[in-house]
Each structure stands twice: as structure tokens, then as C-alpha cells.
């Protein structure tokens, strides 16, 4: 028996606990299932593994830039920089295997649900968000139940995540139908809450016919901002320079000397801004590398099990519908965020770091849905809603992940905040050992929704059938 | 096939993770139907600037910025429209003499 125990311990420590190796093996299995050629299987699994290693390196660079940024800004504003006991890199090293397993188990469960319930309609295929949502969920579960073992975390996390993947495209469906009337694909993006709020709040503001953003002409100079690497480097650097101007000289000199003791604090500020952007670029490169292998494998698998399902896709797939609205949303969300940065810092609160990627994609998506409902005023509202959610979200959520990965609050989408706080709110009810209530409630809500939707659709189909012979008008879908 | 090597194709989007990956899969499908031997990669606009593929595919928001990157730049508005992309690829690759 000891031999079996030794083997299991070895696997837990060296395979399921080591995220690059585990992701490599999952990819290997996915590629083998697709019956790819040997060299493709081998190279693909290796690329996925290297991608994870690069992701870790990127996080370290990004975290270093973030710490300098917060130190300088806190000093300039006379506040204390936020402290954390843990970092995202540590958290991924510790729980990365759990996260990889949550993604895999949740995806299999999600495929099964879509196969069983026609009302589920959409298969969630936005790969990087599958990764981040699983990370946020595991971090939140670990906060609720610090002592939970890996199997409990995987099953509870996967149950909750599968329910989210199934329901999120469905609650976006009414708005999506106004953007993509042919309903060929759904919307799978963690900006969904900002989009929903905008979609409903924009109603009294106007109409798309009269105020469509696409009739506006924006200055060409704005266009370089949509390269998020450029806008991140630029905006963080400018804030750093302003921060250095107001910060305590001693603090800045000491921080600059840590990088290079001959360095001018001003040049150091520029380098920090560039490193911050560089770290995010490396992080994204790593994510891209392992997703490039895993997502096609997932898609190949689901195509075989549920042929012809509608996919739910990343936000930019709808951006061609209204590119001007996207720019309006990005600009307005960034402005609102920067105003919040000033106000919050003036009040002595948490030092915020503008998450340019989220301001672009969430702001853009919310503005696009705002435009569909109410034209350019709706688009501006989308940006404002996004800027506020991201700023307030960062400020209140950082502390939530103190013991796991506080960076999950810095570079985060609205739905991540909602998930974090939802699970945190479950804490007093659920408590340590009854963590199982989380997936039970989520899966219960999912099945109830799917049954109700399914019944409503059936009733509507029957009503259409009865009405058809009497009226010659085409049935409204 | 007038080209004696594998065609290098790049699908781009803003951050190079979600929608460009979808586009890559659509492009691979379209190329398979056309019978073209090609390697399709996906990336973000910044990284794309340092590459020299034969064909770039992306939405207008981005292809406008990198119009000189490759001999063939294809602008799409629908990431899943395999037939539309196939038609555009057929026309443009034939133009270049890469497809008979």
C-alpha cells in the first residue's frame, strides 16, 4: 500500500502541482485525441509547456513594475502602499495544477450540459478567460476554505465555473441579438456585467437610429491607443513621472537605486512604465502560446461530441459592427478611471493602476452594447460604467486576495470582481467544510434556468405553430 | 501551386489571444478547402509588426495599421465566415500567382 501512496504523492507534487507539466500533458492528450501527426503532438505539447513558463516570467516582471508604481504613487499622495503577503506567481506555483484541472473538468462538464440541454445553446470558447476565471474562482475558494484539499477545490471550482460558462452567454443573449441578429455565435467575455448594466441603463438616453456612433468621425490620432501595449506603456509612464514629481525624494531615490544606483529617478520612472507594459506583453505572449494549442484541442473535442453547436466568443468578434463605439468606450472609460485615480488618491485610498487592456476591451464592449441601445450617449455611458466598475473594483478587491494573488484585482474584468465577492459573500453561510454548497447552488441555478428557458422556448414554438395558419406574417424568432 | 514552400499566414487581433485564435481556426478550415499548404499563426498587432508573413488577416481596425506588413492583407468583419474568407483568399492568392 505504501508504494501506491508514494506514487500518488509523487504525482501530486510533481505533476498535478506543477502547472507547466500538467498543461503540457493535458495538451498532449488533446492533440492525441485529434489524431495529429507525431511531430505536431510533440511540438504542440512543448509549446504549451513553454507558454506557461513564459507566463510566470511575465507575471514576475509585471508584479515588479506594479510594486514600484504603487510605491511612488502612494508616496506622492501621502498614503501607505498596499501590502500583500503573496503574489500571483506564488499562487500559480502553489495552485496552478488545481487551476488547470478546474479548466479541464469544467470544460467537460460544460460540454455535457450543452449536449443535454438544447436551451444552453452556446459553447464557451474564450480560452484566456477560461484560464483567468478558473484562477479567480480557485483563489476565492481558497480564501473561503484555506484547508481544502485539491480534489475538493477542483470539483467545487469546476462546478461553479461550468455554471458560469453556461449562463454568461445566455444572460447576454437579449443584447447580443440586437448586435448579431443571425445568432450564429454568442458573447463569451467577462465584461458581461458592465455590458448588461449599460444595456439596460442606456435605454432612456436615445436611439441607435438617430444617434449611431458609426456616423461620428473620430480624430485619427486616437488610433495608436488601440494598441494596448503602447497605451499601457504611455499612460503608466506619464503617471509615474507625475508621481515622481510629487513623491518623497528619499523614497524615489531608494527605489531607483534598487534598479541601478547611478540612475536618475526620472529615467527610472520611464523604465518602470516600460517594464510594466513589457511584463504584461510577456504574460500575454505566454498565455497565447499555450492557448494556441489547448483551445483548438478543446474545440476539436466539442465539435466531435456536439456537432453544430453555436460557439460563444471573445468580445472583439463583435467589434467590427461598431468600431467607433469601441473607441468612444475606450477613451471614456480611461478618462473616468483617471479621474477616479485622482479622487481616490486625494482621499488617501488605495493606489490604482490603470488596466489599459481591460479599459479597452470592457470599455469597448460596454460601449458597443450601449450604442446598440441608445447611440453615442449609450456608448459614452458604457465607458463611464466600465471606468467606475474597474476603479472601485480594484480598490475594494485588492484586500480580498491578500493571501492568494492580489494582482487578480489589478488586471481584472467586472465579472471577476462579481465572482470574487459572490464567493466571499457565501463565506459566512458556507464556511470551511461546507464549501460544497458553492457548486451545488451554482449548478442548481444553472439547471433551473435551462429547464425554464427550455420550457419557454417549447411553448413559444407551439404558439408559433398554432398561429402560423391564421396569420401569413413570418413568425418572429 | 506556384509557391514551392509552405505559405506563412498571420491572423491578428488586439491582444492576440481570443479572436485571432478563432480567426486562425477559420483560416485553417478555409485553406484546407482551398488545398493550400499553409502555416497559420495568431498574434497581436504589436508583435505582428516584427514579422514578415505572406498573408495577414484581421479586422479593419487593425489591418489599416499594418497594411504594408505583407504582400497580401485581408480585412474581415466576421471571424467565423469561412466561405467569405475562402473566397477572398482564393482571389488574392491567385492574384499573387500562388494559387493556380
Automatic annotation (TrEMBL), chain A:
A single Gene Ontology CC term: plasma membrane
The organism's place on the tree of life at top rank: Bacteria
Keywords: Cell membrane, Membrane, Phosphotransferase system, Sugar transport, Transmembrane, Transmembrane helix, Transport
One GO biological process term: phosphoenolpyruvate-dependent sugar phosphotransferase system
Stored Pfam families: EIIC-GAT
Keyword Lipoprotein: no
Its membrane topology: Multi-pass membrane protein
Compartments reported by the entry: Cell membrane
TM region positions: 15-33, 45-78, 98-117, 129-145, 151-171, 224-246, 266-291, 325-350, 356-374, 381-401, 434-453
InterPro entries in the record: Ascorbate-PTS_EIIC, PTS_sugar-sp_permease
Protein family (similarity comment): Belongs to the UlaA family.
Quaternary structure (record): Homodimer.
Function: The phosphoenolpyruvate-dependent sugar phosphotransferase system (sugar PTS), a major carbohydrate active transport system, catalyzes the phosphorylation of incoming sugar substrates concomitantly with their translocation across the cell membrane. The enzyme II UlaABC PTS system is involved in ascorbate transport.
Record-given protein name: Ascorbate-specific PTS system EIIC component
Annotated organism of origin: Actinomadura luteofluorescens
Lineage, top ranks: Bacteria, Bacillati, Actinomycetota, Actinomycetes, Streptosporangiales
From TrEMBL, chain B:
Alphabetical GO biological process terms: phosphoenolpyruvate-dependent sugar phosphotransferase system
One Pfam family, short name: PTS_IIB
Keywords of this entry: Transferase
Superkingdom of the organism of origin: Bacteria
Transferase listed as a keyword: yes
SUPFAM superfamilies referenced in this protein's UniProt entry, alphabetically: PTS system IIB component-like
InterPro entries xref list: PTS_EIIB-like_sf, PTS_EIIB_2/3
MF-aspect GO terms: protein-N(PI)-phosphohistidine-sugar phosphotransferase activity
Protein name: PTS system ascorbate-specific IIB component
Taxonomic source organism: Actinomadura luteofluorescens
